[in-house]
Amino acid sequence: MNPFAKIDFDPKIAFTLRHYNRETFVKDIIAGIIVGIIAIPLAIAFGIASGVGATEGLVTAIIAGFIISALGGSRVQIGGPTGAFIVIIYGIIQEFGTGGLAIATIMAGIILVLMGLFKLGAIIKFMPYPIIVGFTAGIAVTIFSTQMKDLFGLTLSEGESVPADFIEKWVFYFEHIDTINWWSLGIGLASILIIAGAPYISKKLPGSLLAIVIMTALCWALEHFGINTGVETIGKLPSGLPEFRLPALEVAADKTIWDTIQSLLPAAFTIAILGAIESLLSAMVSDGVIGSRHNSNTELMAQGAANIVVPFFGGIPATGAIARTMANINNGGRTPVAGIVHTIVLLLVLLFMGDLVSMIPMPCLAGVLIMVSYNMSGWRTIRSMCRQSRSDIAILFTTMLLTIIFDLTIAIEVGLVLAVILFVRRIMETSHISVLRDEMELHHDGEEGDVQLAIPQGVEVYEIEGPFFFGVATKFEELTRSRKAAPIRIIRMRKVSFIDSTGIHNLEIFIESAQQNGQHIILSGVNKRVYSAIERVGLVTKIGKENVLDHIDKALARAEELSSQITK
What we know:
This protein is an alpha/beta fold. About 65% of the residues lie in helices and about 5% in strands.
């Protein structure tokens, strides 16, 4: 019996190891080694681009990758730092320092764990696609823009730094274009060409690793023969295992620790939401490839645990990485063991290959990240979505522009608001209220032909189709106010799947107003869920149980009975 069943915590590793065999183990080992090799340049590049360092990127990939594989709800998910977090991390460090980043990451981890505990994994999967495409494309443009300094090898004055703001950043680049290093530009462009061309040689050949090996060897050779290129490299990495350390939060003189933590909450929420979306999307895509099914709530809790732990070792936010996950699948990985092997490969690199990693040229890493941003941009998806509805296009480009010009926190907040508005609008478009007099058609599902029902004189039928929530409730109220009241009104609710508090409130006002004017209200076709909702607030008692009926035939019969009583 699973002791965590009530909280839906069921790591896939426990299931897969029960059916493990030597053949699967060999495939997992091979896949883990290949994915580990692929992850080396990405972890280093993401760490440096985020404003921390190569070591922090590798540490994150090792610790978070291990936790996500060991505790996660997906068989093949590979976790670690991803390009989506670069913009957020850089902004947090600029404002709150590395201590603030650590606190925000821990808070995001707690949010993710709570989301899993409260079984919100399924809800995250319903994030509107235009928002996901919009902020992913926005992140891609932002990552691209952050790499221009290293790609062109621009020289900065002492104490000078690249601005964080998107527009100011490009103004800064143009102002310093005269300091371009042509060796840097050549190495960066060559790296891009190698990465882009590698798949044409072999689909399994990691282009980013190939570019790093060739460009690092080239820079070493040039230096060995006395050619001074002036190309910046990563620099020496600290040796040994990362040490456990408590985050040191930098607090401004005019603020308390609590004020600073409150200021970090929006960023933590953004990290959590983005991490949840990216990891669950990755898990969903991998499910379709291997014919499996992930546990979204377990996956969220694993992501949360990883982000709670990594800051204590200097790491940065982590999530499921779809590119590395697909590489894992394509190379035969089928259990979380492959993900664990990939972290062992990265650990060996950190411990024994620090001197080689320190020689990697920065323009080469810029080329790696530019290709990452190109692959993230989803320009083909954007092109196809431009042929769809205008509302989807508006949400996509609004989210994208807000991500680029402002930041991802604002983009997600505004995007979610737009998504809610779009959802309400579409629900209202599918919800209809019609007023019937004299006669109505009774549709019999599964039977041929419709039956015409006569509506007694002095009776009106209001037919509501769709959920009776706040938007439809307002429409219903406006409709009833604009019409001359009939003595008897039937509200047909056979297609009302649920009713919210606003719908109940408007219905209550409608019933009270009708009763004050001596009119009779009959509810027809009320399902069990709606009946329970209106019964709890006393509406059934107020209207009378005899006037709440399950079929229109009974409602019309009741209307005739009331009509005869009125005419007497």
